[in-house]
Automatic annotation (TrEMBL):
<comment type="similarity">
    <text>Belongs to the sulfotransferase 1 family.</text>
</comment>
<dbReference type="Pfam" id="PF00685">
    <property type="entry name" value="Sulfotransfer_1"/>
</dbReference>
<feature type="domain" description="Sulfotransferase">
    <location>
        <begin position="76"/>
        <end position="344"/>
    </location>
</feature>
<dbReference type="InterPro" id="IPR000863">
    <property type="entry name" value="Sulfotransferase_dom"/>
</dbReference>
<dbReference type="GO" id="GO:0008146">
    <property type="term" value="F:sulfotransferase activity"/>
</dbReference>
<keyword id="KW-0808">Transferase</keyword>
<dbReference type="InterPro" id="IPR027417">
    <property type="entry name" value="P-loop_NTPase"/>
</dbReference>
<protein>
    <recommendedName>
        <fullName>Sulfotransferase</fullName>
        <ecNumber>2.8.2.-</ecNumber>
    </recommendedName>
</protein>
<dbReference type="GO" id="GO:0051923">
    <property type="term" value="P:sulfation"/>
</dbReference>
<dbReference type="GO" id="GO:0005737">
    <property type="term" value="C:cytoplasm"/>
</dbReference>
């Protein structure tokens, strides 16, 4: 999913206060009282964005976020996959689902769910589930271990997830800002084209220059991107047993090693028998971009807002060089460098990876 805005102020107060209601009334309060008061950005298609808690989030999903924060009851065995949009989300969903559920669904099985369903159909977004009440019933019906995803920043996650005694695990994937921008821009153009085809209208133009300007201002889905990343990076350093921080570029270089890391972190390390049988390698093969894009469901299937094929492009690092001028890249690099100064985090620095 890609969450997809004229600003009246810079910060927004948190939506849910002490003694907050359960999510049914929270949805109503959000829609009628809170959302209209949040800063608005209308230039980022396809959805308007509202600034909430320092981040620009898609307006249609804010009630789901508030409801999830109020009503989500994590289980100790839950695995929550977090990401900034277009940072390897689809790949992480596939890898995590195949790894966590390999006992019930061996990766070589011809009937594996990932051979019949898109990864976004196998692993839903938490905030989307809470837009479809009764969410608690839908989540309760999922057998453990549940694998769920989110684009929410770390600071906006439900307190039951971030508490020191939280049992569930969080896995975050980050990506170089330039590649995240290019992937987001190209994906947005596809969503606009799909919407135009549905409506019988010509697609709205959305140039890279427009996307870069907004991205540099942090006015994009989940933005600022670098703050989204640093929030989870800091959480992984203070709670390494609960938050695993992965880098997309590292995963491309060593997918099998990172699948082993994912399995161990979630409490499902590969046995000696599985290692001898090459199960980790089979999972990587099943979830490779070439394998997934050639699945019939991903060639011809569709999500509500875009065709499934749009989720599988190149799956490489450094593709920004084919789209951005050196001046564009230098501008974004400088903004990110200045924003991260003093944080201890740097994109491309793998010395802190765990």
């Amino acid at each position: 999913m890609l969450y997809i805005c004229v600003c009246v102020q810079e910060e927004a107060a948190p939506m849910d206060e002490p003694n907050k209601p359960r999510h049914g009334s929270m949805d109503k309060d959000m829609a009628e009282l809170v959302i209209p008061s949040l800063p608005l950005e209308t230039r980022c298609p396809p959805f308007p964005l509202r600034q909430y808690g320092g981040f620009w989030m898609p307006e249609p999903f804010l009630p789901g976020m508030a409801a999830a924060r109020a009503g989500f009851e994590p289980r100790p065995s839950d695995v929550l996959l977090a990401s900034f949009p277009k940072s390897g989300t689809t790949w992480l969903k596939a890898l995590a689902f195949a790894t966590v559920h390999r006992a019930d669904h061996p990766p070589r099985s011809l009937d594996h769910p990932l051979r019949r369903r898109n990864p976004h159909d196998c692993v839903d977004f938490l905030e989307s589930v809470f837009l479809r009440p009764p969410a608690e019933d839908a989540l309760a019906a999922l057998p453990s271990p549940r694998v769920i995803a989110t684009h929410m920043p770390c600071s906006l996650l439900p307190e039951r997830v971030t508490a020191d005694d939280a049992g569930c695990k969080v896995v975050y994937i980050c990506r170089d800002p330039k590649d995240a921008l290019i992937s987001m821009w190209l994906f947005t153009k596809k969503t606009l084209a799909a919407a135009a085809m549905d409506d019988g209208n010509p697609p709205k133009q959305y140039t890279l220059e427009e996307a870069l300007e907004l991205f540099c201002d942090g006015r994009c889905v989940g933005g600022p991107q670098w703050h989204h990343v640093v929030g989870y990076w800091e959480a992984s350093r203070t709670r390494p047993e609960k938050v695993l921080f992965l880098r997309y570029e590292d995963m491309l270089r060593d997918p099998v090693g990172n699948v082993r890391k994912l399995a161990e972190f979630t409490g499902r390390a590969f046995s000696e028998k599985e290692e001898a049988a090459g199960v980790a390698e089979e999972i990587v093969e099943l979830c490779s971009i070439d394998a997934l894009k050639n699945m019939e469901v991903n060639k011809n299937g569709r999500q509500e807002y875009v065709n499934n094929e749009s989720f599988f492009r190149k799956g490489v690092a450094g593709d920004w060089e084919n789209h951005m001028t050196p001046a564009m890249a230098a501008r974004l690099d400088k903004i990110v460098e200045d924003a991260l100064r003093g944080s201890g985090f740097a994109f491309g620095d793998t010395s802190e990876s765990t």
